[in-house]
Description:
alpha/beta; four-stranded parallel beta sheet; 44% helix; 16% strand; binds D-glutamic acid
Amino acid sequence: xxxxxxxxxxxxxxxxxxxxxxxxxxxxxxxxxxxxxxxxxxxxxxxxxxxxxxxxxxxxxxxxxxxxxxxxxxxxxxxxxxxxxxxxxxxxxxxxxxxxxxxxxxxxxxxxxxxxxxxxxxxxxxxxxxxxxxxxxxxxxxxxxxxxxxxxxxxxxxxxxxxxxxxxxxxxxxxxxxxxxxxxxxxxxxxxxxxxxxxxxxxxxxxxxxxxxxxxxxxxxxxxxxxxxxxxxxxxxxxxxxxxxxxxxxxxxxxxxxxxxxxxxxxxxxx
Length: 271
Ligand code: DGL
């Protein structure tokens, strides 16, 4: 059943793990007065190597967890869920607005490319779904999309291996071929990847523009909340309310690293 929403209701954001914090950061920067409820499904990460059936089930569970907090909208800060299960989330949300990272990333990339050659990196599930190529070609059928799954990037990010030699080695292994296709734009099609952005940038060089959809999602959220007159009028900034399905030992260290502030209290939820 759909609840009443007011401007003070929170914005619900979820991902399979810590990757969605990159989206939380962008939404906070654009809308500091909004209350954010973030759910990271840390017990079941990674989603990327799993089947569509499992990913759709997880997407449904994640949405129901956030719905308990009566949000005014939901942001799917996970490309894998955006690619394979956005309809599941939309259905579970009823009339509440839902924004997925994939469409926002595709739009940004289409606007950025000059030579109509876009590279997309993401989880195995996102790449196999072909959802980015579809979203990009819906906007411009002339664009060639070259995709590469980078499954090991997710555990490396979850481990905090931001500048580790192993990350550099694996980045070279994954990215050397894709950059030989003369792409001028590379979409980070997984919300964990901006965490490894420095190594990715070093590996592909400066002539390729990197697209991170977090800012586009934050902008779209602001537009949507303004249009529906649901912007929170509060004059104070809120720390996000964090929910996780497991509390890994490194969570607090990683939170501090990515968000640049101490971790607020975390609530453990069962999935
Ligand atoms: N961060 C997620 C994404 O954007 C999923 C990573 C995973 O769980 O494999 O695709």
